[in-house]
Amino acid sequence: MVVAVKKLKPEGFQGHKEWLTEVTYLGQLHHPNLVKLIGYCLDGENRLLVYEFMPKGSLENHLFRRGAQPLSWEIRIKVAIGAAKGLRFLHDAESPVIYRDFKASNILLDLEFNSKLSDFGLAKAGPTGDRTHVSTQVMGTQGYAAPEYVATGRLSSKSDVYSFGVVLLELLSGRRAVDKSKIGIEQNLVEWAKPYLGDKRKLFRIMDTKLEGQYPKKGAYTCASLALQCLSPEAKVRPRMSEVLAALEQLSAPKNASKTSQAEQKTATNALSRTQVRSHPSPSGRTPGGASPLLPRRSPLHSSS
Ligand SMILES: Nc1ncnc2c1ncn2[C@@H]1O[C@H](COP(=O)(O)OP(=O)(O)OP(=O)(O)O)[C@@H](O)[C@H]1O
Ligand SMILES: [Mg+2]
Q: 143 CB less than 6 Å from ligand 1?
């Protein structure tokens, strides 16, 4: 069996806390769209995590690494669907879990481009009872974290939905959530792309040129509208992951779908029209800045067989 081993830097309490959170959650949660934790090791300062090896690495490598074979439109939708299934599973579990670190580098791919979420170090139990959020220290990754979470520390499953919207934008545009090599507004993908997402005629301007125009225009527009809903500054307006998933599955459904799946598609469309985007001011200025306590990257991972 081929495995991937992550060796954590001996960096004190936060590192240990995350290691423990990862072991606790991944030890209990099992789903085809979550990476399998095969084992772990704690010996003094040394902490290891052993996972199933994901042969195609992370989505980040495929989208952004120089020289990577471009992903087709169909593969991009497949990857989005797999990741949405993983998040939906966490949010709709009997004891809901907020993932909190949804980003392209944490979406791992198998040989058939099935996605699995990895890195549960920041996962957090969702609110219980009538509560809509849990209050917590702001952690996560710059460019992906929801604005209300960054501003107030209020974390809800809708924070994950926002991050999902950012990854959808990365899939559409082939650009990173934050790119310091760009100038001005183009450094922040959400700020830059938002004005184009709801405009059928302008959408092509933000589409990944590596797709060379090989994508269905209507499908791209539906996907962009979905991203816009996920990125709504107001958390409660964002769709639930089950609704996001239904909309994405509709995009990948074959044209001559059977009657049953047409009925399912109708349900999905209805679900989405209930969560139409309202117009909101952009969260400019509230997005995480350099001084925010958002996490930098964690320790690198080694693979072995
Ligand atoms: N199970 C795995 N199988 C194969 N490759 C993996 C596996 N887990 C991680 N990787 C690869 O190792 C890289 C580094 O992972 P790691 O989680 O340490 O950092 P990251 O996700 O890039 O950033 P962060 O520390 O912020 O999560 C991933 O981006 C991915 O390419
Ligand atoms: Mg990671």
A: no
Report the alpha-carbon distance of residue 47 to residue 135 in Å, rounded: 28
Q: Is 53 in the pocket of ligand 1 (CB under 6 A)?
A: yes
CATH of the domain at 153: 1.10.510.10
Q: What is the C-alpha radius of gyration for the chain, rounded to an integer number of angstroms?
A: 19
Question: Whole-number mean pLDDT of the chain?
Answer: 85
Share above pLDDT 70 across residues of the chain, in percent, rounded to a whole number? 82
On whether residue 235 sits in a domain, the answer given is: yes
Q: Are 216 and 234 in contact (CB under 8 A)?
A: no
Helix pair 157-173, 189-197: axis angle to 10 deg: 80
Catalytic residue among 43, 101, 179, 199: 101
Q: Whose CA is nearest to atom 6 of ligand 1?
A: 57
Question: Which residue range(s) make up the domain with 201?
Answer: 56-303
Statement: residue 194 has pLDDT above 70:
yes
d(CA 55, CA 198): 36
Q: Is 299 in the pocket of ligand 1 (CB under 6 A)?
A: yes
Residue 13 domain-assigned (yes or no):
no
Cα of 263 vs centre of ligand 2, distance in Å, is: 38
pLDDT level of residue 130 (50, 70, 90 thresholds): confident
